[in-house]
Design brief:
The complex is a heterodimer of chains A (296) and B (240).
Chain A lengths: L2 H17 L1 H37 L3 E5 L5 H12 L4 E7 L1 H12 L18 E6 L5 H9 L4 E5 L2 H43 L1 H9 L4 H36 L1 H4 L9 H31 L3
Antiparallel strand pairs in A: 1-3, 1-4, 2-3
Helix pairs in contact in A: 1-8, 2-6, 2-8, 2-10, 6-8, 6-10, 8-10
Chain B lengths: L11 E11 L5 E11 L3 E5 L6 H8 L7 E6 L2 E2 L8 H6 L1 E5 L10 H11 L4 H14 L15 H13 L5 E5 L7 H16 L3 E5 L3 H6 L3 E6 L2 E6 L9
Parallel strand pairs in B: 3-8, 3-9, 6-7, 7-8
Antiparallel strand pairs in B: 1-2, 1-4, 4-5, 9-10
Helix pairs in contact in B: 3-4, 3-5, 4-5, 5-6
The chains are: A alpha+beta (296), B alpha/beta (240).
The complex binds adenosine-5'-triphosphate and magnesium ion.
Chain lengths: 296, 240
């Protein structure tokens, strides 16, 4: 395509939007609303995912070793565990280490355990980490049947609940995002239908004098693109401002185990994504409406 | 030894063999048309209302697709032609209608330039060519007018200027004088004659007994979707 043709398509696309300025404004408003919601969902999902991931990363399996196990069979067990696929690393933690950990994790109150120093009631253990935290449960189940294992612990309830919540949030979020996007595409395609309708005589004549379908389509794609891109400006600015405020606010920072994504580069990624989605629904909306009109 | 491959099989501007057209609603508009039209001819299509004249013209620039039979235009097989080639066929065919089909918000100049912008001519070429064709149809001094400021005959001249702007080999006119008074009609006829004199083939569907009987040309009469008469320097043959 020649440069002047590209210019021409942009000029015509802008003219179309300008001629139906009310419809254009209504569509932009609709896209703006949609993208604010979509952007919020995406920001939430990305952060939930991030938080879940950092918690998941700390998930580990404790394999407590039978009291009666010989040193040999303890070594054998360690070998066996490390050959399981998806196991990242296995470290041995003696019952004394375990007691030490327990005492230090309890802080002040830990001192009550001091009396046990002489007669340690804990068991030796292997600490197992999975390559992919999602495999934790499976690996734990496998180890449970090994010789010399007393019992296996990985905080079952917490981990399962976390995985379930993360999946649930992701699915619901994606469904909502899809529904919103669909609505926006529908609105854009309606606006463009109106422009096409207003120009149907022009299109008829263009075809008569030998315009290719692409030549006729382009201005409407430009119009769709314009609606989508203009509709994404306010959502990007708004979400950036809100995120910036949240990240500095005390409410979020009081839990040091929850870390939301840092402003930079997250907000750029989010902004880029919103812009892409805006442009995408704009073009898609116009593709849908133009297709029907240009059969011949 | 004679080299048969040098013989040009196909000189015709338009060739139709057993062409039939049935519309989706079941109406059969053409029911087996056989016709050849040479390059440079001036042909009248006559016949009663609903006979199939417009359908005949629409098949030629692929506004409609034949249901069966063979059509060649300037050597191109229209039955085998793909949709994306149709625009290029249309660039070699000018079309003029009874209702002019001008864009009311554009000036005369813009209406003609439109046809050249669509085929991506350079602005410089467009400017020159538009003024040339407007000169040819006698409207050079009205380039800045909008269609509503022109008479019917003048509007038809603009439509003709647009149709010939891209140097078509073939000009199709479907009742070009249908909305015009007799005097104005003669002016349009004179213009079409001039265009034909430059070598452009012209096919004109018309109900004007006066024109057909006065400016004698080949007459193809269609009735009930069939060619019932094909006559050089023929007469209109119906009561007007
Ligand atoms: N798009 C269409 N869909 C269905 N039927 C059509 C269509 N166009 C034309 N016809 C039918 O085909 C037949 C031929 O119509 P056509 O327009 O070719 O006639 P015509 O000779 O041009 O008539 P007129 O002199 O009134 O312009 C008519 O019966 C008409 O009703
Ligand atoms: Mg007709």
């Amino acid at each position: 395509m020649r440069l002047r043709t590209v210019k021409r398509h942009f000029r015509e696309g802008l003219k179309n939007s300008w001629r139906n300025s009310w419809m254009t404004l209504a569509s932009i408003a609709a896209v703006t609303t949609t993208l604010i919601l979509v952007g919020t969902f995406i920001a939430l999902l990305m952060n939930i995912n991030h938080i879940a991931q950092s918690i998941e990363e700390d998930v580990e399996i404790k394999v407590y070793i039978d009291l009666t196990a010989t040193e040999e069979s303890i070594d054998e067990l360690g070998e066996r565990i490390s050959t399981i696929t998806n196991v990242q690393n296995v470290t041995f933690s003696s019952r004394d280490d375990e007691l030490q950990n327990l005492i230090s994790s309890m802080g002040e109150q830990g001192s009550v355990w001091d009396t046990f120093m002489q007669d340690n009631p804990l068991l030796d253990a292997y600490v197992v980490e999975a390559i992919n935290p999602q495999d934790t449960m499976e690996i734990a189940a496998e180890i449970e049947d090994f010789n010399g294992v007393d019992y296996v612990n990985y905080g079952q309830e917490v981990v399962e609940a976390l995985f379930a919540f993360n999946n649930f949030a992701r699915n619901i979020g994606l469904i909502l995002i899809a529904a919103l996007l669909f609505t926006a595409i529908f609105l854009i395609s309606n606006t463009i239908k109106i422009t096409i309708f207003a120009r149907r005589k022009e299109i008829e004549i263009m075809k008569l004098v030998g315009a290719t379908n692409w030549f006729i389509r382009w201005p409407f794609f430009v119009e769709g693109l314009l609606l989508g891109v203009l509709g994404s400006i306010i959502p990007i600015a708004l979400l950036a401002a809100i995120y910036n405020f949240l990240i500095g606010s005390a409410a979020i920072n009081q839990f040091d185990f929850i870390q939301i994504l840092p402003f930079n580069p997250f907000i750029w990624q989010l902004g880029g994504l919103i812009l892409l989605i805006g442009a995408g629904i704009g073009v898609w909306g116009s593709v849908m409406s133009v297709r029907k009109f240009l059969k011949v | 030894m004679v080299n048969n491959f040098d013989i040009k099989v196909n000189d015709y501007m338009i060739e139709m063999q057993n062409v039939k057209k049935t519309y989706p609603n079941g109406v059969t508009a053409l029911n087996g048309i056989d016709i050849n039209i040479d390059a440079g001819e001036f042909v009248y299509l006559v016949g009663q209302s609903g006979a199939g004249k417009s359908t005949f013209t629409k098949l030629i620039f692929r506004e409609e697709v034949a249901s069966s039979g063979e059509i060649r235009v300037n050597g191109e097989d229209l039955i085998k032609m793909k949709w994306r080639q149709v625009p290029f066929l249309r660039r070699s065919i000018g079309v003029v209608y009874q209702d002019f089909k001008l864009l009311p918000k554009m000036t005369v100049f813009e209406n003609v330039a439109f046809a050249l912008e669509v085929v991506e001519e350079s602005p410089k070429h467009i400017r020159k060519r538009v003024m040339d064709v407007l000169d040819q149809v006698g409207l050079k001094n009205k380039a800045r007018f909008i269609p509503d400021e022109l008479s019917g005959g003048e509007q038809q001249r603009v439509a003709i200027a647009r149709a010939i702007a891209n140097y078509p080999k073939l000009l199709i006119a479907d009742e070009p004088t249908g909305n015009l008074d007799p005097d104005t009609s003669w002016g349009i006829m004179k213009l079409l004659e001039e265009i034909n004199a430059t070598g452009t083939t012209i096919i004109m569907a018309t109900h004007s007994k006066e024109i057909v009987n006065t400016v004698r040309r080949r007459v193809i009469a269609i009735e009930g979707g069939l060619v019932v008469r094909d006559q050089q320097r023929g007469e209109y043959g119906y009561e007007a």
